[in-house]
Amino acid sequence: MDFAYSDKSKQMLASLKTFMADNVLPANRRFHEIAHTGAYPTEVIEPLKAKAFEAGLWNMFTPELEDDHPGTRLTNLEYAPLAEEMGRVPWSPEVFNCNAPDTGNMEILMQFGTPEQKEKYLDPLLRGELRSVVGLTEPDAASSDLTNLATTIKREGDEYVINGRKWFSTGAKHPNANLCIVFGVSDPSPEADRHRKHSFILVPMDTPGFEVVRDVPIMHHHAPEGHCEILMRDVRVPVDAMLGNEGDGFMLAQARLGPGRIHHCMRTIGQCELALELMCERALERSTFGKALADNANIQDWIAQSRIEIDAARLLMLQTAWRMDQEGARAARVDVSAIKVMAARLQTTVVDRAMQVFGAAGITPDTPLSYLWTWGRAMRFLDGPDEVHLKVIAREELKKTKGAMGANLAHFVPPAR
Amino acid sequence: MDFAYSDKSKQMLASLKTFMADNVLPANRRFHEIAHTGAYPTEVIEPLKAKAFEAGLWNMFTPELEDDHPGTRLTNLEYAPLAEEMGRVPWSPEVFNCNAPDTGNMEILMQFGTPEQKEKYLDPLLRGELRSVVGLTEPDAASSDLTNLATTIKREGDEYVINGRKWFSTGAKHPNANLCIVFGVSDPSPEADRHRKHSFILVPMDTPGFEVVRDVPIMHHHAPEGHCEILMRDVRVPVDAMLGNEGDGFMLAQARLGPGRIHHCMRTIGQCELALELMCERALERSTFGKALADNANIQDWIAQSRIEIDAARLLMLQTAWRMDQEGARAARVDVSAIKVMAARLQTTVVDRAMQVFGAAGITPDTPLSYLWTWGRAMRFLDGPDEVHLKVIAREELKKTKGAMGANLAHFVPPAR
Amino acid sequence: MDFAYSDKSKQMLASLKTFMADNVLPANRRFHEIAHTGAYPTEVIEPLKAKAFEAGLWNMFTPELEDDHPGTRLTNLEYAPLAEEMGRVPWSPEVFNCNAPDTGNMEILMQFGTPEQKEKYLDPLLRGELRSVVGLTEPDAASSDLTNLATTIKREGDEYVINGRKWFSTGAKHPNANLCIVFGVSDPSPEADRHRKHSFILVPMDTPGFEVVRDVPIMHHHAPEGHCEILMRDVRVPVDAMLGNEGDGFMLAQARLGPGRIHHCMRTIGQCELALELMCERALERSTFGKALADNANIQDWIAQSRIEIDAARLLMLQTAWRMDQEGARAARVDVSAIKVMAARLQTTVVDRAMQVFGAAGITPDTPLSYLWTWGRAMRFLDGPDEVHLKVIAREELKKTKGAMGANLAHFVPPAR
Amino acid sequence: MDFAYSDKSKQMLASLKTFMADNVLPANRRFHEIAHTGAYPTEVIEPLKAKAFEAGLWNMFTPELEDDHPGTRLTNLEYAPLAEEMGRVPWSPEVFNCNAPDTGNMEILMQFGTPEQKEKYLDPLLRGELRSVVGLTEPDAASSDLTNLATTIKREGDEYVINGRKWFSTGAKHPNANLCIVFGVSDPSPEADRHRKHSFILVPMDTPGFEVVRDVPIMHHHAPEGHCEILMRDVRVPVDAMLGNEGDGFMLAQARLGPGRIHHCMRTIGQCELALELMCERALERSTFGKALADNANIQDWIAQSRIEIDAARLLMLQTAWRMDQEGARAARVDVSAIKVMAARLQTTVVDRAMQVFGAAGITPDTPLSYLWTWGRAMRFLDGPDEVHLKVIAREELKKTKGAMGANLAHFVPPAR
């Protein structure tokens, strides 16, 4: 339970902060100007990537790199403050090759890819040359229950044929995107084990029949990389595009989500810190009716409550990261659900307060708050809606209770008569 | 305290519902397609306006029309269900010439305009030929304290010269917009009565020096009519462009805001009803883990709480409308503040629940929820932030207490010893 | 939808306020001193009852009195402000013969009693000579599901034999209590219609085998009349003690609860008003760190929010009362559930704020707040827990949706592809 | 930042759990039966104290014991799980000589007492023979602002003369209580430094003029040890009864509150755990409408949210304890305020949910929940109301902002134009 940041982590955090201040923040406005035109700000991103690579701020998201892979090999706990820092500028993780969903995709390729798959996809991903997406959620199904998903992956001779519709495929508009990791039903037979019916398959995005139908803005916000809807009609890939074995889909989905979820939480906490800092600065700067906003007790309460809630959430996040490092992602499954719920809710709460201090400016693109608030709302769906995670936590809690059923009732509550 | 809708109101509501179903809803998708390109959907709006005019569904927002003005002359109470209905399709009020800020602008022109001003501006507004905006809020000041505003209106000979920057001027991008009612300091002398320092002035938008700088999307949402930033540099208008007398600004601002605020609340309640209906339909339609969403007790709680809260808010809104009709907008000032706070908060609350039932679809433009949620957040600033209204209410309550100070303490709490 | 108080109601309210100020409030401290000793403050109550009877402030809770019964015959709407006023001093309703559960018991006796039952029980109840209790909830069952109840009413010859345990039988410690209306299973056969298995029966409390086991304080508060646990072992009553017919239990339970629930809500609203008034008085009276509590923006927010919420709840309550008057208690069943949930939650919310303004004094018996807060918590169980009422409301809402299924989805949401 | 419990702490926790199960829980009902009569359950407590002393479970609350003092010398972090465990049975801390306010009183005596004072008061306190109280809060002043306090400590020759009224003096009804540490104004001169005007003085409770006026139940709950009101009229003590120097009052008050506050938080968290466990047990045990309460999604949400919130609060508490151990109570001042606010609010939240699962039983004395809920409400005043602590936190946060004013605004928000 030692959550202190290691020296390595602290040194990298210092480098990262300097890098952000010297390179990323000055480019922020230009990034948004280009993004606003609908183009991808490649001219901003690529030079920064080169610099970050040189600065050794690269692939910080995972300790599991092989010897010849570039990167820093930080534990989840060591990565936490770095992810917080990157979260403050939501487009910055790509600069450091630490952006979703590439990180998650790299992770499952590292764990489950064949040498050929690694060479073809993982290596260029780790070098930042290739971008990838994931095809999981479907528009016509309540996707939190994976058994509702309808995309099919059907073997025909030496090929798999894929049909289906996905959405929220983040990154599909990125100019360098050319890999979609697709989740689908590979064994539709009713008698199949429900945890062995699905598979993940690697699909180059230029395969015939693979179509990016549209970008789906999240809360009206068009991300330059896109959160896209994808239609696959008779998309054919060779059998060696299967990731792991046929039927491994469920198992891989579980493995993939753990670290991805906590990275989101780390960035969220960084974004909440930014919102709190902005709230304080604005409260000191602006006055109404003859006194600074910061002198109003209601605004002071908002500031203090935000401080408390952020600090508590950070500790829960650090504990989860620490447990993932110590005991593995599977052991930390319920912890991840807990911080996922807490962090997502925190973001709308804290940013809401900051917006209120900013007045109408808070809902314009002149501050990062409108984006952070709407993104916080989206966070309550990303990697599963709150309700699914709450159910996971409750089930675990009730399971513990069943193990010692009535232990407390017996001591504290009179028996029925 | 009779909040029953009159027969006239009920008949018009029936007509309006038919009109919405037959004409507005079928045009909804086309409207958004055009708006999405950045153009104004004139081809959708204008034919509907003509039809609505013919159907007698026109200028329903005010009873104060002169004899030769087209319109229905409904009380605020009678208007309430109609505004709710229009609220369900946020762009529809213009079809019926009932959209903000034109309605508020027409109201102060009716009350305070000279015959010449009425002929020039009010008549074409009432006919739906002219669109207008208002220049009140400023980006560089905490505008809820009007004394912070910096725009100047300076008399020079037979002209007023206007300098300043405004934003959230809704409608400034509308192709028919050509009137901006500008609020500014007309008497900057320190010894001036602080409630007599400001004026409203009528500014044609094609006056030299008047510039629409940019559209400011609200929560990333670009409205086709725009919520614009306006820059005025040495804008000159003749002295007869003054609305009321020099120094009437505060008084007019008060007069203008009452009905406008409650119209927003009425539409909000209609939008909450829509969100609740959508939530129920979706909850019945979708299943996870083998049962309909509607069978989950947490979702049932959300539905029931939404029903309770909407009904309570509607009653508070009706009571306010009724008081405005009976005693005038000034007498209902605190009531308006109360329903303004309640309705704006309700919208994010109810729509948030609906979104959660929709899953990720709730944050896409495929449902109206993402717009309604973010608009609900904006509502907490429109016509003044919550905190200003809460202060108004608290002050009134404390004033009542002072009138009977200690009345209850004396009976219920032992005296200090 | 006319919620204005009638002239009759207004005049009685004026009389009642005078009576409270002149007679009840001055006796408040004495009442509590006696109650604190564990005795019933008969010496306080009885003279006040005589005065109230003379003043015509008697049996105000129901319009359904027969010609020779004393009382005022007010509608529910007319009764609302009177119940609010009485709520301010929680023990005062008995002074006016308007206290629970006697009012509910009188109501079902009026509706369903035989002439003999009325003569024996109703008449002395209406005169205020007899006090009564109700035996509904049971300690060993989740009583919100009536089918869980275990008390049996078994016919043996000319008698019914009753066995079972009840609790929360309010009033059983009252010196004048001598009637318990007991709910139990009269037809235990598995094939019996589940809505015809239960009955209500009239049990004199001095019947052998009827035992008041203990008083159960609600949140540590010992009411002088008691909320008691009752044990019935082979309690025998003649067959004419059956209320209505055997098997009418469910129907009578429904009939009984409507008015009783809304009376609680009315009193709750009066108690919230008192809490708000006390909060304002204290906020003006006390200072910390050099300024009055009332000058702090957070406390102003609490005051304003309380004002808004109380006003909205009152309107929902008035609408429910109006509907009960116009369409009957059955038609208003869902409305009653709604206001029941809203009012109970309001009480803990508003009183919590008032306590915080009072500081530690708020949790002592020196103010009424500690009682009002804990009573508000109890209100969330009285006449059914929130969750049962929310379920009723949700079910109704979903039923409406089913009638027009997909109406909105069709217009607002793209179809599945 | 290592929050792992030490081996010593873990071993003691195991011993304590065994002790609780074997000795304390079996005595719980007897304790309450005696307490209910108004007497102090000495016959329960004293034998348990002797056993606990023998078992080495004694004076666990502080590491600062001198060599010849009995006790375990645990750090705050080591003490945390033990205090949680004791919190589950609110009267149990006395068994281990770890109860408020004796612990706080022992702490300041250890730090500031003269050898004579230690011999007279500290030694018997550490042996558990003497009980003590503290006279801080006053009924007639808003005591969160210490400058409002009115009790006077006036030097006359070789004596101090004390006059004033205190309340919430916990423990004053305890049969062994005979020391009150009184806070008062020792230098009333207007020119005195406001942080040097007050002193703490040691007053034997049998001194003439010292009167325990009454026990003040907290939320109707009469604790057997009492939360008492004390009146001091010309109470005379020798000059060597002064604790520290005249004028040290503020400094001592600060020193005294830190550990005391966090002990409350630790116990609170233990109580929340108990409430959650009871909630789960009951939810599994009871059924309505054909399914276990635990199968309802709303109840599952309550369970999961409670789990998340308790875990987050515990981490914040552990971090605070750790900081106190590492950097001292003064350095952790803001941390203490943060956990104080969070823990107190958590208790009403979590226990509220548990009560709702228990139904009406939750508000009876048959479960510990009614006590825990009302005590949670009291916790929001103990050691200062939420608002005072929130102000402390906000001030600190704004101070940090001032140090880097505008740092973020400059990067993220366009400058005023």
Largest interface: A-D, 60 and 60 residues
Q: What is the oligomer described by this structure? A: homotetramer
Spatial arrangement of strands, main beta sheet of chain A: 1-4-5-8
Overall CATH class of the largest domain in chain A:
Mainly Alpha
* Total helical elements of chain A: 12
The backbone outline of chain A, from C-alpha atoms, is globular
Order of helices and strands of chain A: HHHHHHEEEEEEEEHEEHHHHH
CATH architecture verdict of the largest domain in chain A: Up-down Bundle
Helical proportion of chain A? 40-55%
Question: How large, in whole angstroms, is the Cα Rg of chain A?
Answer: 23 Å
* CATH topology title of the largest domain in chain A: Butyryl-CoA Dehydrogenase, subunit A, domain 3
State the separation between the terminal residues of chain A, measured CA to CA.
46 Å
Low-confidence sequence ranges of chain A: none
Question: Briefly, what is this?
Answer:
Chains A, B, C, D: It comes from Lutimaribacter degradans. In chain A, strand 9 and strand 10 form a beta hairpin.
Per-chain topology:
4 copies of one chain form a homotetramer.
Chain A: H1 7-24, H2 28-36, H3 42-54, H4 76-87, H5 102-112, H6 115-126, E1 131-135, E2 152-156, E3 159-170, E4 177-185, E5 198-203, E6 210-215, E7 227-238, E8 242-243, H7 249-285, E9 287-288, E10 291-292, H8 297-327, H9 333-358, H10 369-379, H11 386-403, H12 407-412
Parallel strand pairs in A: 1-4
Antiparallel strand pairs in A: 2-3, 3-7, 4-5, 5-8, 6-7, 9-10
Helix pairs in contact in A: 1-4, 4-7, 5-6, 5-7, 7-8, 7-9, 7-10, 8-9, 9-10, 9-11
